[in-house]
Amino acid sequence: MHFVVKFFPEITIKSNPVRKRMSRQLKDNLRTLLKQVDDRIKVHKDWEKIDVIAPDAVAHLADRIEEVLAHTPGIANFSRVYQYPLGDLQDIYEKTRAIWGDRLAGQTFCVRAKRTGNHDFKSLDVEQYVGGGLNQHTQAKGVKLKNPDITVQLEIRHDKLNVIEAKHPGLGGFPMGTQDPVLSLVSGGFDSTVASYLTMKRGIRTHFLFFNLGGREHELGVKEVAYYLWNRYGASHRVKFVSVPFDEVVAEILERVDDSQMGVILKRMMLRAATVIANELDVDAVVTGEAIAQVSSQTLRNLSVIDSVTDTLVLRPLITSDKTDIIKTARAIGTEEFAANMPEYCGVISVKPTTRAKPEKIEKEENRFDFAILDRAVRNRAMQNIDEVMADVEGETPDVEVLAEPGDAVVIDIRHPTEEEVNPLELENTEVETIPFYRLNNAFGGLDKGKHYLLYCSGGVMSRLHASHLLDEGYRNVGVYRPEKGAPGKS
Questions:
Q1: What whole-number distance in Å separates Cα of residue 151 and Cα of residue 165?
Q2: What's the rounded Cα separation, in Å, for the pair 319 and 360?
Q3: What is the pTM of this model?
Q4: Separation between Cα atoms, residue 217 and residue 210, nearest integer Å
Q5: Are β-strands 150-157 and 108-116 bridged in parallel, bridged antiparallel, or unpaired?
Q6: DSSP 8-state class, residue 454
Q7: Is residue 425 within 8 Å of 413, Cβ to Cβ?
Q8: Side-chain-facing half-sphere of 134: CA atoms under 13 Å
Q9: Residue 395 — very low, low, confident or very high, per pLDDT cuts 50/70/90?
Q10: What is the pLDDT of residues 5-27, one digit of tens each?
């Protein structure tokens, strides 16, 4: 099983040293990610492409390999190919017919060939010879050069022939790790998750910062979407998840600040805290999901007043985006359901919020604010690796039961539907239910209380988070199914 990976065009137009660095980083990223699928998969790079080669023993993992390639920044497109030593035109035709012959029955088709190197034939010669042979010796409906049902694609590179079985678009952008890191302020909604995705797509290692305004359920949801984004688009590089308890800050604003100024001042407090944490992480920029005039605090005047509290660069990838476009992107990247079901805390809502904040009035209001509360919130932050977000599940909740064998329990697959469809969980002699994580909290109370349930997700992180939350809610018939490596369901 062979995949040919093409670099994003912006990589290929860089200077030679930069192109080498970026292509080498992409190769290293793919090795890291594909090793988690199967350590027998090999990744090789040359000047034009990256080859991903998997032995026949892992052919059943083709869909998972394609998932990795489709969601790794830096890839323009990738093709699943059959590669052969290059022969003459007759040999090229025979190799192509062996793969495509039966698939052309009743379909119109054309042949397209790309050629690199010196040969005694041209690309057009290949297209005409192979196309003519397929037309005569298969059940194809006929050759159609414009808008055919099937396009048979061939690539000839020096002494190799690639017969392309399927070609897929990549994510684009730059390889993760080729740009300086940032700290993204995430609330779990549409805007902040899409903004974080866009920085990750651009090859920027993106840490996550969450301001907890008073809800454990909200923090749980934000951790889930941050983990999802990292695991799907940036798992080649470990990042931090930082949670800052901001409930006291909110209470101080509600008590001390004029109603119309609360939204702007809350954003200024967040940016002050983000600056401290960014400096600690040696990060030169913070990212927000703000867009011009989407809410009252996001007018140009207000954003200018908000930014004046820091010298740290503030990036706003969505600054001119429409909400409909943001939601469309969220749907495409798989975060729409997270955002739509995210618990929200609406503790700071002004009745008549200002849209043209004045620095002198803001400063007057902030003079009544006790900044020791903000300092205490920053000191009490929780910082952990994104793949270890269970570390802060504390309190008197019983330890989460983790079992490698389900026994008589019912296994609940809580993965995102897109992940579940690619790699469905199938267990012999075990009842499996599918309840996506974002419906679990509401659905669990309606399940049979006489049964024991084990939650399952591919990484074991979200399942433990949700099991812990359900235990915290008083349920005692819940645990985690975490199969041994190589067992059914194990990623």
A1: 10
A2: 26
A3: 0.81
A4: 13
A5: parallel
A6: E
A7: yes
A8: 36
A9: very low
A10: 999 999 999 999 999 999 999 99
Query: CA of 473: how far to CAs of 58, 391, 464, 476, in Å?
Result: 42, 19, 14, 9
- In angstroms, the CA 443 to CA 457 distance is 17
Conformational region of residue 94, where left means phi above 0, alpha means psi within -120 to 50, and beta covers everything else: alpha
CA distance 453 to 420: 18
Distances (CA, A) of 185 to 1, 29, 193, 299, 315: 41, 25, 9, 18, 11
Strand partners, 207: 183
CB of 134 within 8 A of CB of 111? yes
Q: Which of 431, 482, 426 is nearest to 452 (CA)?
A: 431
Residue with more model confidence, 305 or 342:
305
* Token pair for 221: 């949801």
Sign of the dihedral defined by the CA atoms of residues 321, 179, 225, 77, in that order = positive
Could you give the CA distance from residue 76 to residue 60 in angstroms, rounded to a whole number?
Answer: 25
Between CA 49 and CA 27 the distance in angstroms is 10
For residue 292, the 8-state DSSP code is T
pLDDT higher at 457 or 316? 316
Task: Give the residue-averaged pLDDT of 112-141.
Answer: 95
Question: What's the start-to-end Cα distance of the chain, in Å?
Answer: 20
Mean per-residue pLDDT, 445-460: 90
pLDDT, tens digit, for every residue of 415-445?
Answer: 877 777 888 898 988 999 999 877 887 889 9
Kindly report the length of the chain: 491
Query: How far apart, in whole angstroms, are the C-alpha atoms of residue 444 and residue 425?
Result: 19
Residues 6+ apart with CB under 8 A from 62: 1, 54, 80
Q: In the sheet that 285-287 helps form, which strands lie side by side, from edge to edge?
A: 313-315, 285-287, 179-185, 204-212, 240-245, 382-385
Judge whether residue 394 has pLDDT over 50: no
- Name the strand (E) or helix (H) holding 166: strand 160-172
Per the DSSP assignment, residues forming a β-bridge with 209 are: 185, 242
Per-residue pLDDT band at 355 (split at 50, 70, 90): confident
Can you read off the two tokens belonging to residue 217? 């359920």
Dist CA 335 CA 345 (whole Å): 19
For the stretch 183-194, pLDDT in tens is 999 998 899 999
Which residues form the catalytic set?
Answer: 457
Tokens found for residue 469: 């939350």
Phi, psi angles (nearest 5°) of residue 204: -95, 120
Q: Taking residues 205-227, report their average pLDDT.
A: 86
* pLDDT, tens digit (0-9, with 9 covering 90-100), for 21-68: 999 999 999 999 999 999 999 999 998 899 999 998 888 889 999 999
